[in-house]
Specification:
159 residues, mainly alpha, Arc Repressor Mutant, subunit A, two-stranded antiparallel ribbon, 6 helices, globular
């Protein structure tokens, strides 16, 4: 049996808490300035990039739970930041898109998001950022490749 490793040295844990720390800090800004939660902002960001999407598409693109996506969509609609239209290809679903007010807010948030990104990564060289981005893409690809695999935690020495 392999020895266990401390949780702090477990890379998926490090990735998760780092992501939570960055998201939490950025979310604080979004909440204070725009009254948006992280799921609401993520939905707005995807819609701002992609245009109208179904909630199923939003769930797939954000990798958030469908309940969180549904709640975020509902809040954005209630605030007049997004609007639903019927889905011509599937009468059971709707498309959600940013309203004019939502696009205006998205336009205000993106410069803030880019500034926060600049501040978080200020101590990194361009080469380090390129390498970091490439590594994150590889990790994401590897996770996708694991979908068909059966994972047994006993093989990893994880408690």
């Amino acid at each position: 049996m392999q020895p266990t490793i401390p949780l702090a040295k477990f890379l998926p844990y490090q990735l998760s808490i780092t992501s939570n720390a960055v998201s939490g800090r950025i979310a604080q800004e979004y909440r204070q300035r725009f009254g948006l939660s992280v799921p609401e902002w993520r939905v707005m960001a995807v819609l701002g990039d992609s245009g109208a999407l179904t909630q199923r598409d939003l769930t797939q693109r954000t990798l958030m739970d469908k309940v969180a996506v549904n709640r975020a969509c509902k809040v954005l609609e209630e605030r007049g930041l997004a609007a639903r239209t019927p889905n011509a290809q599937d009468g059971r679903s709707h498309h959600l898109d940013l309203s004019d007010a939502g696009r205006e807010m998205h336009g205000q948030i993106m410069p803030l998001a880019r500034e926060m990104e600049r501040r978080v990564f200020a101590g990194f060289s361009a080469e380090e950022l390129d390498a970091f981005s490439s590594l994150l893409l590889r990790v994401r690809g590897q996770v996708g490749d694991l979908d068909g695999d059966t994972i047994d935690s006993r093989n990893f020495g994880i408690v």
